[in-house]
Amino acid sequence: MRRIFGWVGALAIAVGLAGVVPAAAGELGTLRLGVLKFGTVNWELDVIKANGLDAKEGFDLEVQGYGGGEATNVALMGDAVDGIVDDWIWVSRQRASGIPLVFAVPYSHTVGALVVHGDSGIDGLEQLAGKKIGIAGGPFDKSWLLIQAVAKRRHGIVLSDVAELVFGAPPLLNQKFLSGELDAVVNYWHYVARLEAAGHKRLLNVADAQAELGVPPTVPQLGYVFKESFVEAHPELVQAFARASRNAKRILEESDAEWERIRPLTKAKNDAELETLKRRFREGIVESWGDEERLLAAKLYAILAELGGEKLVGPSRELAPGTFWDGVKY
Question: What is the DSSP string of 180-238?
């Protein structure tokens, strides 16, 4: 159940430290984050800047946009930025390879879905046999692996064997789906939301697939990632950012006016699309991030390691120790 309080009061939230008093403006220095230019994380970061949440916590947030995920990874490794957004599977894989990164601040537990045309008459995964399915993220995409596992569990079918698969970039797949070139599409949550707003239906939520395999859907996969050396050198700065991040989410959870302000960032084509994006974003707000969630994440990692093998998780079949930074818990 969500906590009931206004976002102004939420500014007093302490993450990782009880009774933290916000630092004076600028005292903690600058935090540089590298993100995809058009990613949904920009909505949250814009709310932080526009509402002065970084200044209230004693730091200055600097956002640098990049054209792709690989570019953000390179920026982090080369110290062009202090942190990026990625999942803890990637962090674990890097740690297992000797690169000490940490997943420090969760961003969202909203994930994508498998969508079919609203008038398709398709109501079950077994009806996808012989159909053309578009998949964002490649053959070892986490969402696709989970969906395949549920199809096999429910119906004893291997979707990759019985359907025609098309891999591509998320916006291109949406276009091909809308033009009728694809019968179904597995895409990231905000692309799915746009299809929902256009009258198409979710055949299977990835969160529901995850739950069916034994892990609650509220376990976040995406979050802010830093070098371990950075969080050790600047723990108060990272904790201050975590508080600002949570408070930005509270604003987006409670203020429809704020959604109107960031409407240009969302690129919503109409009111229905904005409302769907808003609803799905709010559903993904992480309410707790502690030892239980970390244990569940390790369970999900083991499931994905079994499904995707070394091509997904790298050399370690278990979540690498130290993947999650203990400095942020709530």
Answer: TS-SEEEE-HHHHHHHHHTT-EEEEEHHHHHHHTTS-TTS--EEEEEEHHHHHH-HHHH
Find the helix packing angle between 189-197 and 170-178, rounded to 10°. Answer: 20
What are the structural domains, with CATH classification, of the chain? 7-16+27-109+219-313 (3.40.190.10), 113-212 (3.40.190.10)
Model pTM score:
0.90
Are the C-beta atoms of residues 227 and 34 closer than 8 Å to each other?
no
- Determine the Cα angle at 328 with ends 53 and 227, to 5°: 90
Tens of pLDDT, residues 1-29: 333 334 434 444 444 443 445 566 579 99
User: Which value, in Å, is the radius of gyration of the alpha carbons in the chain?
Assistant: 20
What's phi and psi for 225, nearest 5 deg? -115, 135
- The candidate with the shortest Cα–Cα distance to 76, out of 229, 294, 220, is 229
Phi, psi of 201 (to 5 degrees): -125, 150
How many whole angstroms separate alpha carbon 148 and alpha carbon 141?
11
